[in-house]
Amino acid sequence: MRRALMALALASASPVLAEAPTLASPIDCDLTETCFILQYMDHDPGSGASDFRCSPLSYDTHSGTDFALPSDAMMQAGVDVLASAPGTVVGIRDGMPDTGLTADTAAQIAGRECGNGVRLDHGGGWTTQYCHLKQGTIAVQPGDIIETGAILGQVGQSGRAEFPHVHLSLEKDGQDVDPYDPDGDITCGAPGTDTLWATAPPYRPGGLITLGFADHVPEYTAIKAGTADHSDLTKTAPALVIWSYNFGIRAGDILQLDLTGPDGPVIARDITLDRTQALNFRAIGKKRRTAEWPAGTYTGTATLIRAEQQIEKKQITLTLR
């Protein structure tokens, strides 16, 4: 997403700050466990995409950082978007539905790709912009002077958004700046340590968003909605399935899925992922061949392997009675 995607109404001049703002996370969510950063600013000058670590967690011309939620259900429950630095509200937009980008909505979104959003002026030519907020949740007005951590609205999926997230962009005199590498001097394998973050949100090169159980391979729409997990299964379930919802996948990654029960292994598989994808899911399962599944605790494990190194591992349990 390039800068100035939304034409927000500007207010009067804001206080002048001589230095670059120090940023805090713009999302009220744990980025190490629950939420995650899916895409960073693109530093590739060509048609490809490369983040500040020369990894493909970006897309061509992406101008900010995308802080994502694991499901539509969490979006509906409400997660606050927070001001990353003190400043003055100089523009807002609200009223766009959280339908995201589809073939049916593309025409209505054109020219308003940021969706519902807020723009803050931090003085000295520095601004931040917060995009894709949930309809009806904008909590500030142009002219408001706010502090770091002030609630701006809630995470949504308005505008050009294919998943619920808040897109944070930072500009200096109208030019995009990456808070992870503000000087723009990218050295692959040795990212700069000087950032504009008070505490830099953790960099995860990919990982596991959520795991779940089901009695059939769920639809991808149910995975994204947050309705695919069925931890209320009984011993007469027609099948036992474990699924894993993943982000930042690269071609060649291996996803190990394993399901064990009270009597030992149920099913296990190493899945080689053949495409680089921002989001995907995989599942394995086994049909019931007896009158009932053995009663007891079942453990599902997902492990993401890249170049023979473990990226992340998660486990969930299910008790059948």
UniProtKB/TrEMBL annotation:
Annotated signal sequence range: 1-18
Pfam families: Peptidase_M23
Annotated ranges, domain M23ase beta-sheet core: 61-179
Gene3D superfamilies per record: Glucose Permease (Domain IIA)
Keywords: Signal
Domain of life of the native organism: Bacteria
GO MF annotation terms: metalloendopeptidase activity
The protein, known as: M23 family metallopeptidase
